[in-house]
Automatic annotation (TrEMBL):
Membrane topology: Multi-pass membrane protein
Protein name, entry field: Grave disease carrier protein
Transmembrane spans: none
InterPro entries xref list: MCP (IPR002067), MCP_dom_sf (IPR023395), MCP_transmembrane (IPR018108)
Keywords: Membrane, Repeat, Transmembrane, Transport
Lineage: Eukaryota, Viridiplantae, Streptophyta, Embryophyta, Tracheophyta
Entry keyword annotation includes Membrane: yes
CC annotations in GO: membrane
Coiled coil: none
Amino acid sequence: MAASSESILDHIPLFAKELLAGGLAGGFAKTVVAPLERLKILFQTRRTEFRSAGLSGSVRRIAKTEGLLGFYRGNGASVARIIPYAGLHFMSYEEYRRLIMQAFPNVWKGPTLDLMAGSLSGGTAVLFTYPLDLIRTKLAYQIVSPTKLNVSGMVNNEQVYRGIRDCLSKTYKEGGIRGLYRGVAPTLFGIFPYAGLKFYFYEEMKRRVPEDYKKSIMAKLTCGSVAGLLGQTFTYPLEVVRRQMQVVPSAAIGFTVYDTMKSYLRVPSRDEVD
């Protein structure tokens, strides 16, 4: 059975393994930090209502009005978006890295390579998945249960969506394709430096880990945490403008699961591929 499994893995294209590993990593990490994401969005968009209540007050308010599932409102759309986003992000990073090395074998080496490949992969992933990110934000912004909707789908003159499909349909009817990509420019402007720096710091950190600890989960979590923190620190003003900040634990978990999945899927090391 093990031999059969290994044989199947050997026939899966490299890009498909990277796509799968990245998608699973992103979905897992996003679900773990979903409650923090919900609170972050409400603090950023409904400042008067939630900032005055503070963190503990906001937690109690969500728990009382929406229950436990309230902390995961919009997470379905978030995971539906993050799986293809993370898959494309990690896979295209590896692909851009290989393409750059092939085009500039004697120039593009070291951290600059990771910075460039990371930036390009971030932009690529955003362009393909932005509408889902917009829908996720709209759903997470809601604080009223859909069961309280009136016939017109409004509560206190505010549009409320019944789910991913309803939100997607209404957003498209209101603004067409342009409506689904509203705000994409500042998002791209923010993701290029953040994604590039995130991969740059992560790969630099991993290079400095002693050989005996390179496969350690704790070492990967530490490298991912520092990479996410530094990437966010250097680009924080841009992140506020584009609204969606990556949470540090999300980056740590994402990188760790991605590298672990690559090992499980028998993705060769970069030294072997390069």
